[in-house]
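thought: fold this chain, then report.
action: predict
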Amino acid sequence: MDLVPALEEPLRQPLKSVLGPATAKVMAEHLGLLTVGDLLHHYPRRYEERGQLTHLADLPMDEHVTVVAQVADARLHTFASAKAPRGKGQRLEVTITDGSGRLQLVFFGAGVHKPHKELLPGTRAMFAGKVSVFNRRLQLAHPAYELLRGDPEESVETWAGALIPIYPATAKLESWKIGKAIQTVLPTAREAVDPLPDTLREGRGLVPLPEALLKIHRPHTKADIEDARSRLKWDEAFVLQVALARRRHADAQLPAVPRKPAPDGLLTAFDARLPFTLTDGQQRVSREIFDDLATAHPMHRLLQGEVGSGKTMVALRAMLAVVDAGGQAAMLAPTEVLAQQHHRSIVEMMGELAEGGMLGGAEQATKVVLLTGSMGAAARRHALLDLTTGEAGIVIGTHALIEDKVQFHDLGLVVVDEQHRFGVEQRDALRGKGKQPPHLLVMTATPIPRTVAMTVFGDLETSVLDQLPAGRSPIASHVVPAADKPHFLSRAWERVREEVENGHQAYVVCPRIGDEEDDPKKSAKKKSPEDEAEKRPPLAVLDVADQLAKGPLQSLRVEVLHGRMHPDDKDAVMRRFAAGDTDVLVATTVIEVGVNVPNATAMVIMDADRFGVSQLHQLRGRVGRGSAPGLCLLVTEMPEASAARQRLNAVASTLDGFELSRIDLEQRREGDVLGQAQSGARTSLKVLAVIEDEEIIAEAREEAAAVVATDPDLTHLPALRTALDALLDEEREQYLEKG
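observation:
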């Protein structure tokens, strides 16, 4: 939202810099702040009152923190070391307190002289550094600090009650230095042009933008902070929703070929041979999709559903409807393993209906072809020919589908599985292969809370499958604390053996493959003993498989599967596992989505704390897919009080993916959700929290839709147009256009 020249001025220029060149360089490289406007929109994370101190008892490990505290005592010690063999080494230990806890600061060598003079008992200061543990006590080594001295003209009450902004900082630039830089440019905030239409701002009682910027950086009262945050949240929500509303509006103008299934065609024949009835949810979502496919504008629909809720069945019926109507459908899968799996299961489900042009194929049959990067030249040539002639109604593949050589006869529908694994350019390239824009169905098994979906996928209509098909079994999940209770881990392997003895199979998942070459840069870094203990490398597939085959799972048939294997080998391993010729599959997350082996009933996830909540939920969905109950064991060495353990306990306590995704978001914030992987640009959200601010997002969406409906080009709202340009620099604008 760098709206006018004063705010667009670069912080670092060849001739004159707004800030010192060194500061401007650090801001650009470490915080992504390039202009005066960027700096003004770098908001405080929180505020400290000089009279109230930070909770030292709650400091997070390994994070860069800023605390306001009082020196309790300071002691200078001398010691002998390799550098100072005669006992001339010096170490200053300073204990600070805030009433809730104590924290030790340590300074060494020549660095002790200044703090020894300044950090006297009773002194108050801000301290910044990385929290570590030494001798089981929290400490900051060589923290930067800024003494808090009252202005001689200020009364004690005013000084103690003043609000100190604490900014998101880095080890190279402390919070108070960022604060000083912002105070330098703060006068230009008065020139910020307001992007919100006056009627909206006044109708909702929001302060003007210049006032909000002044209040967020230099508040006199807590009410100032509240006013500023309310206003800035609206900016973020509204500008983002206007971008999405304009995209929805533009999409609605595009032409598409309506695709209505023939009355007694392929879809009817397919439904007639299904050995089960569709769930109510599957029928409802199918109707929504068929209604969209029948219109003369491209469908843009997000289909989200629990792991195992039958999304593939819904997508297949949509593809068959398009084939019925004379078009072709393409399904894009993120990995070869998944593309092969989808191809196999779709051909099985369709039976003779997938044998178009072959002896024994049904009358309404079509051809279902697979296209991946590793196929042999002859098979590939054959598949390409079937697509060009229209012989193949359905193609399933990886991003090999996007290559220039791939030509379709009449592409009518694109189904993208696990959307967040595909770049926007890839989706766009596939959509460009239709004579007119094809209909688009995006599927995800990572349930997304409604507001996140509105913020990230605001241009897509959303369908949700929230019931599991009949006959699916519940999955019991338990945390296995391997460090606290090693016998629990032994019991886990006994449980795996029991499942195999009962005729079932199991997965063991590890975070790493194990054949990586050590990175010399990484290993060259010296690590403290605490680091070594805390941060051993994640467990690896190759090592764990070897240990299990020689140890607790001896005599069972154990195989490995990971992403760096040759595609043919991966396929062979999956086929053996699906056929029941392998008892235990030790794998990386290549099995995370789409792998369907109903006889697999147990999963052990090693170093489960190294995975995200949604990933654990996805992995767990690979078991309990048949009639026998599933078991998922989350193995971790993290201590009971850690945030990682709380996360695992949450996963173990519920099978509701929507509930888990809320927990995940509350812990991670939106950076990951709106990051490169899912929105095509780094998150633009600084004060808006998609879970807490659900109402603002919903209201902003309505306001944005109304504005765009009356003025799609924002001709009468130039300030909003400018704000949009700042949010959507060229790369993001293209992203939104491509969708």
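thought: worth noting. The chain has 28 helices and 21 strands.
final: tokens above.
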